[in-house]
Specification:
Length: 175
């Protein structure tokens, strides 16, 4: 297993991993499958994406940061996403990916990271607890998917503690 920054050519695998959860669960609130082309539009800006791969180089999961809310003052807060391929969960890949992503975000100068978890999701709650997030609150009936309303818990982790003005966030990879 290894972890590296994502590349454009990873996005077919990233879309396939995501589409499993879109089609079969309420973990992801999309209704329609995503394409590599749609996802790659979010790649390459100030928010990093990482993948974990098998020995043979197959992408087994990814973790990414993105915009939480788009008004200017929110720039130093990012929202995370993390998906491990069906069949590769529960082997430590998610934890290892998140550790790399969180260290990178802190180094870039992000002030905190937030994550929304559709309830119930014991693995994701355990992961966020282990990685130092705290539960902020729950939005009840936040989404309708697969014939039911679903609550979403929001979690937050503090990152860079810079005094005064926050740093300018660099565009593009830092690796
Ligand atoms: C949630 C997810 C990213 C976690 O990644 P993972 O590789 O399966 O989890 P890990 O093996 O790294 O385990 C991380 C921690 O969660 C715990 N954990 C894992 N699966 C668990 C489960 N089903 N129930 C309870 N705890 C669990 C592990 O024990 C570990 O804690 P530890 O470090 O104290 O041992 C992964 O299961 C996944 O992709 N799930 C589907 C998509 C999803 O839910 N994404 C997150 C959306 S918010």
């Amino acid at each position: 297993m290894s972890i590296r920054p994502a590349r454009v050519e990873d996005f077919e695998a990233i879309a396939a991993i995501t589409n499993h959860y879109i089609a079969t669960t309420a973990i992801h609130f999309g209704y329609e499958p995503v394409t590599a082309g749609e996802l790659v539009k979010y790649f390459g800006g100030k928010h990093p994406w990482f993948v974990t791969t098998s020995e043979a180089g197959e992408v087994l999961g990814y973790a990414k940061a993105g915009t939480w809310r788009d008004r200017a003052a929110y720039a130093w807060t990012c929202e995370l996403g993390l998906y491990i391929a069906d069949g590769a969960r529960g082997r430590g890949l998610g934890r290892a990916l998140y550790d790399v992503l969180l260290a990178d975000l802190e180094q870039r100068g992000f002030r905190s990271a937030v994550a929304g978890i559709t309830m119930p999701n014991a693995a994701s709650v355990a992961l966020h607890e282990r990685c130092g997030f705290t539960r902020v609150g729950t939005f009840v009936d936040a989404g309708w998917k697969l014939g039911a309303w679903h609550a979403v818990e929001f979690w937050q982790k503090p990152l860079a503690r810079v005094q005064g003005e926050p740093p300018v966030l660099a565009e593009g990879p830092r690796h």
